[in-house]
Amino acid sequence: MKNLHNALQLKQLYLLKQMGYRYTDIKPSDLEPDPAQLPNDLENLRKMVEKCHLCDLSKSRHKVVFGEGNPHAKLMFVGEGPGATEDSTGRPFVGRAGELLTRMIENVLYLRREQVYIANIVKCRPPGNRVPTPTEAFTCRPYLLKQIELIRPKIIMTLGATAYRYLTNDETPISRVRGHIIHTDNYLLVPTFHPSYLLRNPSAKKEAWADLLKVKELLEKRG
């Protein structure tokens, strides 16, 4: 898939680590990662991610937050990164923002949370819930891309600017791109606001609800 371009090659990072490099600034590569680098099933991929120490986030995490949900989900949500509650439980979106996301899934899409798949750009919590750095995001992104490859969702809904930017390499403000239907080779992508933003800005819920209704219609059309 084209959006695998610019992902880091984990094999190269492991090699640098073995050569004595600790953590170094990285830039997106124009090369695709070798699919042989990562397991071809979610459980073994999870085990690999739980042992990952490729960036500084591994030093402060309590638990890796791999992702959860239906491994054959038609709809996948991608957020920014774990918060404090997620870091302590190892589950994505279980704090206040997660409660809101669950209500959005149930009350607008009429789906159970277990029917979709939920993951993040980074699998470990950035200290203080700050935005992941480019180094952290690009180091972790191959794991997410592999999850997408294995789950094969028909639609991905990115939650917030960070998720959208690092999944698409597009820096268009989320306020301008939200609700748009973006066609890729393998799925449709629909950006919307992050639930944390909606908690801080309740007036934006109307727009997020409209985005969800658009996703609901797409799911119905695509079966």
> What order do the strands of the largest sheet run in, or round the barrel if closed?
1-3-2-4-6-5
The dominant shape is globular
Q: What is the CATH homologous superfamily assignment?
A: Uracil-DNA glycosylase-like domain
Mean pLDDT figure: 87
Q: What helical percentage do the residues reach?
A: 40-55%
The class by helix and strand makeup works out as alpha/beta
Architecture (CATH level 2) name: 3-Layer(aba) Sandwich
Low-confidence stretches: 1-9, 23-35
CATH class: Alpha Beta
Helical region count?
10
Per the CATH scheme, the topology name is Uracil-DNA Glycosylase, subunit E
The total count of strands amounts to 6
Radius of gyration: 17 Å
The N- and C-terminal alpha carbons lie at a distance of 22 Å
- Main beta sheet: strand number and arrangement? 6 strands, mixed
| Beta-strand percentage range | 5-15%
Number of domains: 1
Order of SSEs: HHHEEHHEHEHHEEHH
Q: Could you explain the architecture of this structure?
A:
The chain is an alpha/beta fold. The protein has a single domain (2-222), classed as Uracil-DNA glycosylase-like domain (Uracil-DNA Glycosylase, subunit E, 3-Layer(aba) Sandwich). 42% of the residues lie in helices and 10% in strands. The chain contains 10 helices and 6 strands. It has helices at 10-18, 42-50, 57-60, 84-89, 96-107, 134-151, 161-168, 174-177, 195-200, 205-222; strands at 68-69, 75-79, 117-120, 155-159, 182-183, 188-192. The chain has a 6-stranded mixed β-sheet, with helices on both faces. A hairpin with a 4-residue loop joins strand 5 and strand 6. The longest helix is centred in the middle third of the chain and has 18 residues, at 134-151. The two termini are 22 Å apart. The model is unreliable at 1-9 and 23-35 (pLDDT under 50).
